[in-house]
Design goal:
Largest sheet: 5 strands, parallel
Order of helices and strands: HEHEHEEHEHHEEEH
Strand order of the largest sheet: 3-2-1-4-5
Helix content: 25-40%
Number of helices: 7
Radius of gyration: 17 Å
Number of strands: 8
Length: about 210
């Protein structure tokens, strides 16, 4: 999975959406969940700095990843815990769930479980804010990247009809939804049709070049 959080524009848009969500939530300390947070810490530090009042940010990942992230990122507003995104064990606990390019398990049943777990974690009126790469994302990157050798390598990993990225060299597979498949999965997870909004992040951004 490529990292998208170093892209300042993505962080700006994410924080904009978080602020909009918090206007719909009763006043108090905002509670934000970042499942599958990784170790970089870029997004959570930016959220802690730019959201007022400063939120409580819960970042979760595999225990070993959470431990490493905690060692790298010291901020009293950010908590790192080892939790399984498929069953976070949180019920109406957070105002916003922020997901960045992490609902890509090779078994789509696992991705469905993640989305249901995120929905369960949200308070009424809370929002799931995320970047979900579609199978067309990888295709677009392969066609627009300046290095043709890298583009060809990416193209060779795409199984378009199956919605899969397959890296045979590392025996790795990732499931990428189409927009319609993602919408269906969100509905199945419990999100309401009128609340599902999608925008396109085009992959000709300078960050990918």
């Amino acid at each position: 999975v490529f990292s998208i959080t170093p892209d300042q524009g993505v962080r700006d848009r994410t924080i904009q959406e978080i602020k909009h969500t918090l206007t719909e939530i009763p006043a108090g300390m905002p509670r934000i969940l970042l499942p599958a947070c990784g170790t970089a810490g870029i997004l959570e530090r930016d959220i802690a700095k730019r959201i007022s009042p400063q939120p409580q940010i819960l970042c979760t990942d595999f225990q070993s990843v959470a431990d490493l992230a905690r060692a790298r990122n010291t901020n009293a507003a950010i908590i790192y815990e080892g939790r399984d995104s498929r069953d976070l064990g949180l019920n109406a606990a957070v105002d916003a769930v922020v997901v960045m390019n992490s609902v890509v398990a090779p078994e789509k049943a696992d991705n469905d479980r993640m989305l249901k777990s995120f929905h369960k974690a949200l308070v009424p009126g809370g929002a799931l804010i995320g970047l979900f790469p579609t199978i067309f994302c990888a295709l677009d990157v392969s066609l627009t990247i300046k290095n043709p050798d890298i583009g060809k390598a990416i193209s060779g990993c795409i199984e378009l009809e199956q919605g899969m990225i397959v890296d045979t060299a590392h025996d790795a597979r990732q499931a990428f939804y189409t927009p319609l498949q993602l919408r269906a999965a969100l509905l199945e997870a419990g999100f309401m049709p009128q609340d599902i909004k999608m925008d396109i992040l085009f992959m000709d951004r300078p960050y990918f070049q």
